[in-house]
Each structure stands twice: as C-alpha cells, then as structure tokens.
Write a structure and sequence with these properties.
Blueprint lengths: L1 H30 L1 E13 L4 E6 L9 E6 L14 E8 L4 E8 L9 H14 L16 E3 L5 E3 L18 H5 L1
Antiparallel strand pairs: 1-2, 1-4, 2-3, 4-5, 6-7
Length: about 180
C-alpha cells in the first residue's frame, strides 16, 4: 500500500513537472513577436542560411533599410534570388530573429511594353508634346536640386564650373543624414 502511494506521488510530481515545462515553453514562445516584412532581395546566401533585403518600414519595429535576415532552414530560400520581391514573417525573440513564411512575389514590370512605348513616343512627337533634345553646346535649362546638406542649389549658380550630377534615392534615415 505504501508503494502505491509513493508511486502515485511520483506520477503526480512528474505530471506537474511536465505541465510546468510546457507552460515555460509556451511563455517563451509568447514573448516572440512577429512582423510582416516586404522588400527586394539584394543577395541570397543559402549556404549560410541568410539573405539581404532592402525592405519597407516594418511597422512597430524599424524604418526601411537594407539588412540581412537569417532563416532556420536553407530550403526556405528556394526561389529567393537578387531582384525578387518578397514578403515574409520576421520572428523576433530576445536574443535572435529569423525570417519564415517567405513568399516570392510574381514579377510585374513597371516598364511599358516596348511597342506601346514606341507608339506613344511617335504620338507625342506628332502632337508636338515630346521634349526636344538639346543641341550640342546649347544652354541647359535652369533647375533646382537639394544637395547632401539639404541646401537648395540652382544649376545656374554653377555657371562656368565643371558639374557632375549624381542622383541617389534612399529612404533610409541614416543614409539621408550622410
């Protein structure tokens, strides 16, 4: 009889330990946060289970930027190639983060069909709406741009100087301050 009581107590302790462990695992998993990420792949490295994405703002986490993301399994990177537009879930824990549920968006060109573009160009020229190219040696029309120090610069203020215009687009806050 004493053996049965001790055996029952042992079973009860084991069950309580298992329940406690399950609760702890659930509590740890509940601390994980998930975020939807959309962006363009710049580099994929299945051997190291990572890829680099130029992503849009991740609501509730960070502004848009270029950064690497890890995956748990290299198979998750199937179809992930530079230039692909992807959408995935970023799981963030206390000391780690990884991408999962990666979906590669079907490519959709923002360019016009070449035939359509040529037809529209011909129609614009016929209607007199097409801009006329500058002749060699002709004066460039004046325009205003914002430089890297956020100062406006009029092209005409650079008369007589050699000028190189470099257009850079970025939405990353830290790059905008450089």
């Amino acid at each position: 009889m004493k053996f049965k009581i001790q055996n029952a107590k042992c079973k009860l302790v084991c069950i309580l330990c298992i329940l406690h462990l399950a609760f702890c695992i659930t509590a740890v998993r509940a601390a994980d946060r998930e975020f939807l990420v959309k962006g363009m792949v710049l580099r994929a490295d299945p051997a190291n289970r990572s890829f680099v994405v130029s992503h849009e703002k991740i609501v509730g986490l960070m502004d848009s930027m270029i950064m690497p993301f890890d995956v748990r399994d290299a198979k998750d990177l199937a179809g992930v190639v530079p230039g692909a537009v992807v959408e995935f879930t970023l799981v963030v824990g206390d000391k780690w983060a990884y991408a999962t549920k990666i979906k590669v968006e079907r490519y959709q060109s923002v360019e016009q069909d070449p035939r359509t573009a040529r037809r529209l160009a011909v129609m614009r020229r016929m209607a007199g709406l097409a801009p006329k190219p500058l002749e060699i040696g002709a004066r460039v029309p004046d325009f205003t741009l914002t430089d890297h120090t956020r100062q406006t610069v009029r092209f005409s203020s650079l008369a007589g100087k050699v000028v190189v215009v470099n257009f850079i687009y970025t939405r990353c806050g830290s790059a905008q301050r450089v």
